[in-house]
Structures are given as C-alpha cells and as structure tokens.
C-alpha cells in the first residue's frame, strides 16, 4: 500500500524509539511555547471578531456574544490548562485542532441565526479557519488533514441553510473553498515533511558528531596508552609531567623505574606470547601496588616507570618500590631459567625536589642508575639513587622524550 514519505519516516526507528516518538520528545518544549503564543493571538483575533459580527450582522449581536464567550471562552481556557499537563506534544496539538474545529462550528451556528442577506458575503470569511488549521498553527499533517476535512464539511453543510444561498452562490464559494483547502494542505504537508527532514538531518549530524568524538577519544587514548599493557606510554608520561609544572615552587617528585629480570631469557624459553602475558601481569601488579597514586607507564620493552608526588620522600618512594617488588614476586609467574624460578623485578628509585632549573629527566637518570646498581648486585631488589648535579649529562635514551621543566 502506498504511503507518503512523511509517514514512512515517522514509522522508522532511532534506537528503541520510533522517529515519531523521538521527534515529539525533542520538540516538545519549543513547540509548546510556540503553540501557547499562537493560541493567545488566535483567541484574541477570534473574540475581537465579535465586533465584526455586530457591525455586519446586527441581528446576531447577542447570539455572537453569548456563543463566542460562553462556549469558546471556557474551551480556550481549558486548552491553555491542557497545555500545562504532562502529556505528549502530539496530544496537545490534537487538542488545539479540536478547539479550532469547535470554533468553526460555533461561528457557523452564529451565522445560521441571521436573516440578513449580507450573511452570504460574510460567509466567505469561514475559509480563514482552513488557513488557521493548516498554515498558521501548523499541526502535524494528519491532524491538519482531518481537521480541514471536518471544517470543509461543516462550512459546506452550513451554506445550504443560509438565507438566499442558491446553487450559483454555492458553486462560487466552492471555486474558492476547494483551492484554499488543497493548497493549504499542500503547504502544511511541505512544512511538516521539511521540519521532519531537518530534524532527522540534525539528529544524524549529532550522531556523527558523537561518534566522531568517541573515535577521537579512542585515538587520543591510543596515542597516550601502551596497547599491550593498557598503561600510559612515554607520550602519556610527558603529558602527565607537563601538568605538574609549577614555575615558582619546587615540587617534590619520586621516580621509580622497574625492570623485569632476565626477560630476554623468559621470551626465549616461553615464547613471545607468554612474554606479553608476563608484561601484562607485571603491569597489573604495578597498578595494584600504586593504588592510583601518580602515573604508571610502560617506559620501553620490559621497563616500567612510576612518577608520583604522593610518595615524594625517599623513605616513601623506597617503600612503594618494595611493595611493587613484592607484588610482582607474589604473582608467581614461572621463570624456569632463573634461580628464583619465578618472575622478579629490579627497581631503581630517586626522590627529590624539582624546580625551574631542574629537569625531570635528571630524576629519571638517577633512578635508572639505581636500577642498574640493583641489577649489578644480583637483581630482585630495590636501590635508591641520588639526584645528579645540574651539570651532569643525561643520555637521550634515559629521557622521556622531552624535558618539561617542573
């Protein structure tokens, strides 16, 4: 069965809601404000036409006053009250259409009380109700269609009861009424379909923007995270270090470098897949030991680095390093080629204050020197280093890629 594109679009789905339901939800507040304003102006226009009734058809003056204000007055107040109720906007639009239809019936009933021949000329004004229900109030097309057909039927039923309404008059009236009906419905359909089309386009743009933001966030995450362990990579470390910059105040920082002992032998014996699992397990142990203090990153290969301001004293930094060493040892990851028979780590620590003239890479260099001291002394231990003097050289391989001044 043929269906207009407008109705096809309304029946489609956006998530778990139909387009109609989502459209009505999203436009509710804006549409309600528009309806309240239009209803106010239309009510003022409708009731002011009591003066036109009295001027053109004096014989229906009392009838017009009574029917307009005693019937349409309460109906208009009830409509405004209904606008305030927590019901879907489409029901409020339907209520507005029904009030316009009632206004048409009341107006026709008023004119039926006149015996003045001028009523035939005034009756052409009834076509304004078709314009109100289609172009002015712009309800959904289906409501405009049903309401317009009702008003059209009401007008051209009433016309036969007007005094002096001969067939030629009716045909002349229809020659204007039919085009007004058809063209106003066409205008309403175009408005309804274009409004829906623009809404769907905006919805798609918002969806694309959301998807793009999510993908950009994922790309940024990939930029700053190590894909194997999920820890920060060197870029992530640089970004974190840059946030610690305090130009006027020395900042206490601890750097802890962790190296998996005999990792090459582990890879050779168990294979690279097991090596990856081992690194992920060690990364998890580091995160558990640090408990969210500072940043834990994969510094390269089997090396990890912890940068912390919460454990910035030497004693606290060494205690954290020892906790890391024990956490890894307690994993119990088998490492047959070693005397311990399980995976262990060596840890180098350096804690100190960094200032505008002290690069964080000097702390990293000192921690790295302490790490190599731990390895020379037999591995599976923690050693603390001292901050090198400002004039000492820092190897490019021992830096984090940039030299942010803290």
What topology, given as strand order, has the largest sheet?
A: 4-5-3-6-7
- State the separation between the terminal residues, measured CA to CA: 72 Å
What is the overall number of helices? 13
Poorly predicted segments: 391-399, 401-406
Question: What proportion of the residues is helical, as a percent range?
Answer: 55-70%
Number of strands: 7
Average pLDDT score = 89
Judged by helices, strands and strand pairing, the structural class is: alpha+beta
Indicate the overall shape.
rod-shaped
Radius of gyration: 41 Å
Keyphrases for this structure?
5-stranded mixed β-sheet, transmembrane, single chain, alpha+beta, about 400 residues, disordered C terminus, Rev_trsase/Diguanyl_cyclase, diguanylate cyclase activity
Protein architecture, described:
This is diguanylate cyclase. The chain has 406 residues and is an alpha+beta fold. It has helices spanning 5-11, 19-56, 61-83, 89-112, 119-122, 128-136, 141-158, 167-224, 234-243, 263-270, 272-290, 314-331, 360-376, and strands spanning 13-14, 17-18, 251-260, 295-300, 303-308, 345-354, 382-384. The strands form two sheets. It has a five-stranded mixed sheet, sandwiched between helices. The chain has a two-stranded antiparallel sheet with strand order 1-2. Helix 13 links the parallel strand 6 (345-354) and strand 7 (382-384).
Architecture blueprint of SSEs:
Layout: H1 5-11, E1 13-14, E2 17-18, H2 19-56, H3 61-83, H4 89-112, H5 119-122, H6 128-136, H7 141-158, H8 167-224, H9 234-243, E3 251-260, H10 263-270, H11 272-290, E4 295-300, E5 303-308, H12 314-331, E6 345-354, H13 360-376, E7 382-384
Helix pairs in contact: 1-8, 2-3, 2-4, 3-4, 4-7, 6-7, 6-8, 7-8, 10-11, 11-12
């Amino acid at each position: 069965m043929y269906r207009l594109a407008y109705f096809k679009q309304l029946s489609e789905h956006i998530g778990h809601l139909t387009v109609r339901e989502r459209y009505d939800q999203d436009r509710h507040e804006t549409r309600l404000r528009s309806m309240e304003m239009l209803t106010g102006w239309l009510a003022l226009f409708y009731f002011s036409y009591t003066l036109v009734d009295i001027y053109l058809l004096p014989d229906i003056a009392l009838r017009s006053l009574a029917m307009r204000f005693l019937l349409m007055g309460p109906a208009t107040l009830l409509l405004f009250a209904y606008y305030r109720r927590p019901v879907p906007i489409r029901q409020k639009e339907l209520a507005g259409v029904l009030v316009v239809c009632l206004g048409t019936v009341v107006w026709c009933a008023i004119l039926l009380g006149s015996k003045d021949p001028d009523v035939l000329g005034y009756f052409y004004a009834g076509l304004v109700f078709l314009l109100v229900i289609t172009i002015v109030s712009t309800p959904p097309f289906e409501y405009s269609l049903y309401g317009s057909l009702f008003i059209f039927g009401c007008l051209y039923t009433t016309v036969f009861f007007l005094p002096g309404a001969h067939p030629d008059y009716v045909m002349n009236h229809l020659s204007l009424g039919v085009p007004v009906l058809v063209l106003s419905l066409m205008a309403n359909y175009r408005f309804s379909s274009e409004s829906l089309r623009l809404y769907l386009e905006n919805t798609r743009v918002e969806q694309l923007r959301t998807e793009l933001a999510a993908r950009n966030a994922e790309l940024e995450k990939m930029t700053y995270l190590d894909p194997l362990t999920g820890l920060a990579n060197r870029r992530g470390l640089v970004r974190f270090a840059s946030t610690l910059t305090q130009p006027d105040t020395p900042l206490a920082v601890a750097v802890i470098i962790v190296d998996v002992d005999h990792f090459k032998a582990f890879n050779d014996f168990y294979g690279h897949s097991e090596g990856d699992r081992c690194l992920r397990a060690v990364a998890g142990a580091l995160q558990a030991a640090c408990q969210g203090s500072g940043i834990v990153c994969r510094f390269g290969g089997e090396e990890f680095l912890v940068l912390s301001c919460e454990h910035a004293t030497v004693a606290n930094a060494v205690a954290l390093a020892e906790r890391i060493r024990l956490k890894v040892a307690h994993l119990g990851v088998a490492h047959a080629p070693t005397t311990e028979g399980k995976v262990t780590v060596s840890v180098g620590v350096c804690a100190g204050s960094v200032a505008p003239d002290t690069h964080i890479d000097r702390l990293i260099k000192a921690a790295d020197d302490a790490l190599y001291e731990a390895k020379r002394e037999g591995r599976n231990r923690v050693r603390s280093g001292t901050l090198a003097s400002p004039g000492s050289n820092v190897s490019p391989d021992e830096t984090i890629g940039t030299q942010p001044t803290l």
